[in-house]
Amino acid sequence: MALLIPVLLLVGLTRAWWLLIILALLGVLRWLGLRGWALGATGILLWLAAAGAKWRWPESILSSLIAWRVETMLITLALVVLAVLFTLLLRYLHSRSAELPQSGPGLTPLRGAAQVAPPDTRPSDDELMRYARHIVLRELGGPGQSKLRKAHVLVVGAGGLGAPICLYLAAAGIGRITLADDDKVSVSNLQRQVIFRSSDDGRLKAQAAAEAMRALNPHVEVTPLMRRITEGDADLLRQFDLVLDGTDSFAARAAVNKAAVLAQVPLIAGAMSQWEGQVTIWDPARGAPCYACLFPTAPAAGLAPSCAEAGVVGPLPGIIGSTMALEAIKLIAGAGQPLRGRMLIFDGLWGETRTIALHPRADCPVCGGSGHSVSG
Ligand SMILES: [Zn+2]
């Protein structure tokens, strides 16, 4: 009824008596039981028929009732249809996001999820539009997006892997992201660390990356931590649902692994050199091996050179880091089969991928092969 007054005003001002006739016809059809899409489609057909009659028989009595030009009629129809579609889309997204999650399907709920959840506010219209492509995914939907929003993750290292990890996690709407790195941006980083600009040269990586993430998505909370993660950081790691390790030395990875095993937090790890990279999830608390199960001792000097020594092709960290961000989203939302106990190996030079199974080692010095940490 509230719509009737502006419509009548429009009809009176523009002498669009044909519009009144169409509305009257639709009213009768509605009274006869026609509803929803069928009623809308009938309205569009009547409108098009009026425009067609005006165009075909401009001199007829019927056309004299239609004061509007044919172009105006068609443009108005297009605008009305667009407005209706937009309203329906918003309504649909609201209804999908209203289904709040109970627990992760097929997955052990991630540690700490209950404690870190921010207040259960309804997502804003901007968030609904921003995450629309997630919300329509069957495996994510409103509940999955809501889990991403409540998640708290730690990214270790804002280098080649950290750059795509941070950008994609922020863009995906991971509610709270902490980024640890004590390094500064240098020009030689810019060939692959796409989160930085040339003007960031000399700035602290954690700070510059946090700014880029906030600029990309103001709905996520980013905390830069200007220091390294050591094996004594188990208490810190316990605050997170999961950790992503983008460091590039044995010592740094072993330290993050030790802390993650003690904290019983899943650790998504990526590594790469030259043209090849790997991704897996170290998670002894849930049956998967830890880093030390496979690499208990440091490699001999020169056997595992860093990116600075051996070189790395620019887009490779993009592929490996994005895969790590994808695993994080899967793990948080409980979608698909995460790379737990499996390692994905990507060979960029030959364009090949393969996956190998990984098993815990009973005599692992860090996790003891069954998730019971024996050292700290
Ligand atoms: Zn182990």
UniProtKB/TrEMBL annotation:
Its EC number is 2.7.7.80. GO terms for molecular function: ATP binding; molybdopterin-synthase adenylyltransferase activity; sulfotransferase activity; thiosulfate-cyanide sulfurtransferase activity; ubiquitin-like modifier activating enzyme activity. Gene3D superfamilies: NAD(P)-binding Rossmann-like Domain. The chain crosses the membrane at residues 6-29, 36-53, 73-93, 153-174. GO terms for cellular component: cytosol. It catalyses: [molybdopterin-synthase sulfur-carrier protein]-C-terminal Gly-Gly + ATP + H(+) = [molybdopterin-synthase sulfur-carrier protein]-C-terminal Gly-Gly-AMP + diphosphate. Keywords: ATP-binding, Membrane, Nucleotide-binding, Nucleotidyltransferase, Transferase, Transmembrane, Transmembrane helix. It is an enzyme of class 2 (transferase). Residues 131-366 form the THIF-type NAD/FAD binding fold domain. The keyword Ribonucleoprotein does not apply. It comes from the Bacteria. Catalyzes the adenylation by ATP of the carboxyl group of the C-terminal glycine of sulfur carrier protein MoaD. Homodimer. Forms a stable heterotetrameric complex of 2 MoeB and 2 MoaD during adenylation of MoaD. NCBIfam families: PRK05690.1. This is Molybdopterin-synthase adenylyltransferase. It comes from Paracoccus sulfuroxidans.
